[in-house]
Amino acid sequence: MNDASPLYPVLERIDANLDAALERLMDLLRIPSISTDPAHAEDCRRAAEWLVADLESFGVAASARATPGHPMVVGHGGEGPRRLVFYGHYDVQPVDPIELWHRDPFDPAIEETPEGKVIRARGASDDKGQLMTFVEAARAWVEVHGALPAAVTFHFEGEEESGSPSLVPFLEANADELRGDLALICDTGLFDNDTPAITTMLRGLLGEEVTISAADRDLHSGMYGGIARNPIHVLSRIIAALHDDEGRITVPGFYEGVSELPAAIREQWQALGFDARKFLGAVGLSEPAGERDRMPLEMIWSRPSCDVNGISGGYEGPGFKTVLPARASAKLSFRLVGEQDPHKIRRNFRAMVQGMLPADCTAEFADHGASPACQMPADDPAFEAARRALGAEWPKPAAFIGCGGSIPIAGYFQSILGMNSLLIGFGRDDDNIHSPNEKYHLSSFHRGARSWARVLHALSMEPR
Amino acid sequence: MNDASPLYPVLERIDANLDAALERLMDLLRIPSISTDPAHAEDCRRAAEWLVADLESFGVAASARATPGHPMVVGHGGEGPRRLVFYGHYDVQPVDPIELWHRDPFDPAIEETPEGKVIRARGASDDKGQLMTFVEAARAWVEVHGALPAAVTFHFEGEEESGSPSLVPFLEANADELRGDLALICDTGLFDNDTPAITTMLRGLLGEEVTISAADRDLHSGMYGGIARNPIHVLSRIIAALHDDEGRITVPGFYEGVSELPAAIREQWQALGFDARKFLGAVGLSEPAGERDRMPLEMIWSRPSCDVNGISGGYEGPGFKTVLPARASAKLSFRLVGEQDPHKIRRNFRAMVQGMLPADCTAEFADHGASPACQMPADDPAFEAARRALGAEWPKPAAFIGCGGSIPIAGYFQSILGMNSLLIGFGRDDDNIHSPNEKYHLSSFHRGARSWARVLHALSMEPR
């Protein structure tokens, strides 16, 4: 970049107008747009209208679109051969337990902390603060150059924290309007405080519940112990058999569609200097417990996993009861990667369980959802351009990383609109999203806006 | 027995006075002596006093002895070289759910059923009806012969259904008074409607709770799945390892002290014609699930067992939550036989668990009690005499049988007083003890009293 670059004055503008940008964010944070609570439906509507007005204030033609739930905000601005779609969400999590907050969650303030200034409020990080980093970058482009550097569709959802019930129908009904060449999503985090990241691998999720039944009633373990089948024992044997001694999952065909990491990504991950001991140490653990032959970042980003999330059976209260229970159940989740087929894995898991049942036992299954893994084309030049642009803003180079959890919107954009997503965010692990005392670092907000200005510039320069 | 036997007129007396005996039982059943409910403390006291008065009515010197809980009734009557101690309990279980009773549980009545007449009331079987079988036999002896055929101590407890908190201190404080040559306990059942039984093998019980902890907090299975240790998996592996493929328990040293069944007992058990398919079929099972090389009655009476009675960990509510839990726990019970040492087994179990823990896991244990198995000397001539006496009353010969559960009083009599027990009872499996609509067959009551008259006679004839 040289002084003649159109980016430079945009970055200067963002710096000069930071206080005004913060005031705008504070305004939005004051609206308690808790989507899951019907009592806050009106607040969700207000937040949507606030965003419409803010987009229109710098020339984006925007409106709040009714859904069976909370409104979607959609706006269009700019021109150019590449059409970008920015997604964020304006709804926030509930604030309970409210007594653990040290201030009103909807009375935002800048606070000094040992790690620098933070914006303290519900939604400061997830996702109002993140969403506004892009809006401020877009505003600065318009204010400096009179226009956005590309055609940009703004799409803000108001139900992300309550399961997005209206999202899929809305995407399907408005596919042509909402489809672009590439989505930009700001709802993820930095790799660490100095290292930005583009999330290109998101694990899928398969949820299963299995209930093993034996006798048709609870039995007395004195009268029947030693002769009656105990479903807790049967369930335990099944769970124990799900992993082999190397930590590999034993469901037949489970690893079909799991690829090895590309060399370029492996190098980036190694360069991140991920400290597994520190990562695990923060939660009281010391040793990676996954597949023995995998590096820790693979375990959580690019390898599939299987965990029992809950188990239940017999007497669980205080004290003791000599019951021999009629049933026992477990909730399990499989995190999926690459091309793993969740439906095939569900079938194979169920067949494996059925095959392990002894006489007199039956298994019932409940389907708790299935979404395949989501993989972005890190080798697409636009992705590499965005990665370099991000690296120019932050102390350390940006990396393409994985995400152990799911980000459903990225999957919907792929499956419904055929659109990949650049997942870039500036949250920190300790932002307390979904918890009391949520905060967003001022540096995340400021550098975040500058980062988007750079990414917009890079993408506008990149031939489509 | 010939007509000159002193037993004959006693049996006739029992037959002739059955209606009066039933009236007495009804009187006792009308007192709602629910020991676990403090609101019924006065009723427990009334029941104790009713029994004192009833014993005194036929010349037994009796009194209600205060304890920190409900009173113990103790009475002494008769003379002879052999001193017998009869034990029963006058307290009853609560009646909830009361709406499932078809009549007031404390308004007893004789009802006609397809299986004959029954006495319907809470406590009809457990244990007021059973207790009174002995009292009526004793009364008949006194009324016919002016005296009991042996020295008999009557010992009625009022806290059996609420954990017997006062029992051990009372036995210890009154050991000389309460100790006899042999205890008679009427709180068990028939083998089947035609076959009386003397329970000579009672399994012991070892209660353990183990909690496996890994991370110091619940984790998100997306972020940590594949790298963090899951304590549910660890616990499942431990439980799965407790039995081998032959159904044997793998705790080191577990079978030390377990003997093979004596040939005479094995023959009696084979003669019982126990139908395991029917026994299991009644609760929706079909195949014995215990040690492969054992006959079904061994599995429940003379072989030790291990059951998980409850398991708990992670999210157990409706729906799904992708938590990777910090801990998981299980309550386990071991049923013990022969000379198995519960304390050694507890130590070995805990060491086995500790030895199976992977890195970052800890195990905490809770002690839920330990009592060794209780074995009566079936080869003692008094036991054989009682068995023959019982067989003379019922359609089929009596058998020495086992009991899968524990009967703590028999253990206390052995350990505190050095006294064995003849466990003889006339309950049926479907008496609904501890449940709504409890009943006791009139034939159990009538033949029960006649049975005790015979046993008293047999024991008084048997040289000490």
TrEMBL record, chains A, B:
Biological process, per Gene Ontology: proteolysis
SUPFAM superfamilies: Zn-dependent exopeptidases
GO molecular function: metal ion binding; peptidase activity
Record carries keyword Protease: yes
Segments forming a coiled coil: none
Cited Gene3D superfamilies: 3.30.70.360, Zn peptidases (3.40.630.10)
Peptidase M20 dimerisation domain sequence ranges: 202-358
InterPro entries reported in the protein's UniProt record: Cyt/Met_Dipeptidase (IPR051458), Peptidase_M20 (IPR002933), Peptidase_M20_dimer (IPR011650)
UniProtKB keywords: Hydrolase, Metal-binding, Protease
A Pfam family: Peptidase_M20
PANTHER family to which the protein is assigned, alphabetical: BETA-ALA-HIS DIPEPTIDASE, SUCCINYL-DIAMINOPIMELATE DESUCCINYLASE
Protein name, entry field: Acetylornithine deacetylase/Succinyl-diaminopimelate desuccinylase
UniProt source species: Meinhardsimonia xiamenensis
